[in-house]
Amino acid sequence: MRFPVCLAGPPEVVQYGPAHHGLGGVREEEYVLPDLWAVHFYSYLGELSVEGVTVPIRPGSVSAIPPGARMRFRYHGPSEHFYAHLRLPDAAGSRERLRLMDDLARDGGAVRGCFRRLAEASPDAPGRVRAAVWELLWQLADRARAGDSGGGPPGADPVVLAAVRRIEQGLAGPLRVAALADALGVSHNHLTRRFQAELGCTVVEHVRRRRMARAEHMLLNSTLAVKSIAIQVGIPDLQAFNKACRRHFGTGPRGIRGGDRPPL
């Protein structure tokens, strides 16, 4: 079960934090959030029913539930999850989707990292909170699009999909084509050919674009220091990060934040 979602702009995060349920012998709860999306990261076993569809809750899974949907939770005992309640623009016409439930057991490091950054973010830094949640939603949408449970969009190359997921998870560290190919069980040349055929660019170019896209997102939608952003996108040398921004955007990090970008 998937729900359309509009991610054209950052969400309005109304509330977030840990929540405790199943206390005092309560084994079932049902409620509706009329105007808010609910995103939950679970650390317990249970069941979730949304609009007549029931899915298991497992430790490490994430649910995304749209406004107005009736939710019923069944607990096996004291149960804790981390939640974010948020507002998003109307999803009419959007091509992005979020799964009702996404199991992060496979390749879920990037999403878990988003939840970790959200948990560490201070309510006094709303820009950082919005950036963490926006990145989280995009990660979940990317996983839904890639068919992470084994499939993918019709015609999608499974090797390229797996490579793209690993790249997303590893943007903060060094990414070498040879190491990526080894991890996927293919040769360097084979991965390069598959990437070029599927995405129309080299692996190195894709990594560069994704690093710059994530840097732009954090520069525009968070108050993180430029040095911290450079580290998070895998270009820890500040001079190299400045050069990379200038090559890609035509201006440096401070120019991006200040809106000082040349017209396209």
TrEMBL record:
The keyword DNA-binding applies. This is HTH araC/xylS-type domain-containing protein. Gene3D superfamilies: Homeodomain-like (1.10.10.60). PANTHER family: HTH-TYPE TRANSCRIPTIONAL ACTIVATOR RHAS-RELATED. The keyword Transcription regulation applies. Keywords: DNA-binding, Transcription, Transcription regulation. Residues 161-259 form the HTH araC/xylS-type domain. GO terms for molecular function: DNA-binding transcription factor activity; sequence-specific DNA binding. It comes from the Bacteria.
